[in-house]
């Protein structure tokens, strides 16, 4: 059987960054609560001329420059920060990227699980015709109300992935474990620009979903825990991955290490918990992109993965989750420049807390006509709204 999976991936984020130490101090909270308690050191913030379309297209641009556009007949855009109730964000991204018009485009939504739903659809499309390639863009802007418990877990990021036969990075294996339960742990009502979250409930829902999806994977012929070398989790904040690893350790009885922070005592088999958290610790939550940011972080910071099996747990509140596995391909380090994401994170412009709060309270997601100020230095920007339609341009 032809191997199918992730051939290449790239990550983009916002123009600004907020230090969580500064955020904690502005609220008279001990910084340790955010930095160690939640496992977050920074969060990305979008400029007024950035959104999921500009960020997603910016992630996809280097991917297409490296790989060309031949055979791409599908673009799936996964997001839970949709900018329109009808038109798929990917249609604007297609135009910005100069993709041919003979490409089907659709938007996929199920909270942070959407990127994995897109991946599963892409695997099916490429299985049917291995000469086709599918472009996935998973992009989100995670926003909560100011001064709410969720505020320090905001962030923004986009991951673009190319799904192909004979992939150069990760061949996805056929067995998967799935779990869906109707639960109100997190959602964003139509009339709100910020998410509603019951954080404690979402921790329980996530861990129960992990237990159920792991059991389903075992029931469907998935590998034993001892045959999985590295494990990635959806990371709304990186401490959640540690909680997940503790749960999986308990459920399987395997001594997988729960050391998350650099310098933590390694208490068992290293499955990449710390390595896979490096980008998300600095990005904040990127919803649909989060678990694939964890994949990028692992691939970029571990040069001994060739032939290893990676387990990936994807969770989207509401809730839908999936545990699947893939094999890292030989030569994965040659596909992309592993330093580009760290460099992009370093380039973000720091915001003071007053500037960040003003930006948060500014106009967001309205259909009123506006021309946005030019701020971002990303390849694409959100230029404003004209006659209620969002406008985009290359810089
Ligand atoms: N130093 C180190 N750790 C500290 C600390 C300090 N000074 N003060 C508190 N902590 C720890 C707490 O012990 C806790 O750790 P634990 O979870 O391992 O017990 C952690 O910091 C968080 O503290 P807590 O009191 O639980 O925080 P909170 O009630 O303000 O909110 C969340 C935390 C996660 C519930 C909240 O940020 C949230 O709702 N985030 C959104 C979650 C989300 O997106 N869910 C949906 C997708 S899965």
From TrEMBL:
The keyword Transmembrane does not apply. Belongs to the thiolase-like superfamily. HMG-CoA synthase family. GO terms for biological process: acetyl-CoA metabolic process. This is Hydroxymethylglutaryl-CoA synthase. The keyword Cell membrane does not apply. Gene3D superfamilies: 3.40.47.10. The active site is at 80 (proton donor/acceptor), 112 (acyl-thioester intermediate), 234 (proton donor/acceptor). GO terms for molecular function: hydroxymethylglutaryl-CoA synthase activity. It comes from Corynebacterium nuruki. InterPro entries: HMG_CoA_synt_C_dom, HMG_CoA_synth_N, HMG_CoA_synthase_prok, Thiolase-like. Pfam families: HMG_CoA_synt_C, HMG_CoA_synt_N. Residues 4-166 form the Hydroxymethylglutaryl-coenzyme A synthase N-terminal domain. Residues 275-358 form the Hydroxymethylglutaryl-coenzyme A synthase C-terminal domain. Keywords: Transferase. (3S)-3-hydroxy-3-methylglutaryl-CoA binds at residues 144, 243, 285.
């Amino acid at each position: 059987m032809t191997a199918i999976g992730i051939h290449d991936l790239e990550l983009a984020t916002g123009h600004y960054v907020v230090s969580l130490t500064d955020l904690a101090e502005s609220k008279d909270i001990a910084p340790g609560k955010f930095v160690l308690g939640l496992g977050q050191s920074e969060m990305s913030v979008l400029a007024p001329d950035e959104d999921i379309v500009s960020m997603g297209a910016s992630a996809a641009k280097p991917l297409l420059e490296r790989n060309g556009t031949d055979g791409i007949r599908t673009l799936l855009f996964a997001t839970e920060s949709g900018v329109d109730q009808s038109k798929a964000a990917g249609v604007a991204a297609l135009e910005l990227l100069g993709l041919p018009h003979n490409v089907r485009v659709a938007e996929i939504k199920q909270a942070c699980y959407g990127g994995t739903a897109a991946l599963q659809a892409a695997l099916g499309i490429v299985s049917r015709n291995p000469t086709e390639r599918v472009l996935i863009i998973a992009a989100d802007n995670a926003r909560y109300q100011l001064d709410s418990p969720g505020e320090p877990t905001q962030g923004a990021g986009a991951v673009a992935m190319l799904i192909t036969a004979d992939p150069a990075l990760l061949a996805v294996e056929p067995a998967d474990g799935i779990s869906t339960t109707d639960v109100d742990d997190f959602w964003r009502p139509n009339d709100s620009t910020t998410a509603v979250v019951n954080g404690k409930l979402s921790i329980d829902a996530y861990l129960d979903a992990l237990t159920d999806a792991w059991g389903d994977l075992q029931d469907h012929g998935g590998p034993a825990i001892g045959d999985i070398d590295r494990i990635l989790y959806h990371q709304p904040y990186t401490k959640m991955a540690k909680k997940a690893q503790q749960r999986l350790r308990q459920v399987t009885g395997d001594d997988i290490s729960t050391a998350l922070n650099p310098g933590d005592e390694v208490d068992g088999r290293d499955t990449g918990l710390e390595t896979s958290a490096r980008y998300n610790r600095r990005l904040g939550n990127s919803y649909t992109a989060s678990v694939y940011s964890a994949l990028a972080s692992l691939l970029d910071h571990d040069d001994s993965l060739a032939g290893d099996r990676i387990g990936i747990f994807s969770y989207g509140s509401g809730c839908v989750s999936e545990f699947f596995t893939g094999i890292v391909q030989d030569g994965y380090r040659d596909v992309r420049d592993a330093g580009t994401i760290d460099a992009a994170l370093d380039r973000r412009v720091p915001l003071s807390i007053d500037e960040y709060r003003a930006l948060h309270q500014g106009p967001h997601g309205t259909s009123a006509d506006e021309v946005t100020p030019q701020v971002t230095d990303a390849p694409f920007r959100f230029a404003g709204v004209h006659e209620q339609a969002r406008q985009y341009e290359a810089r």
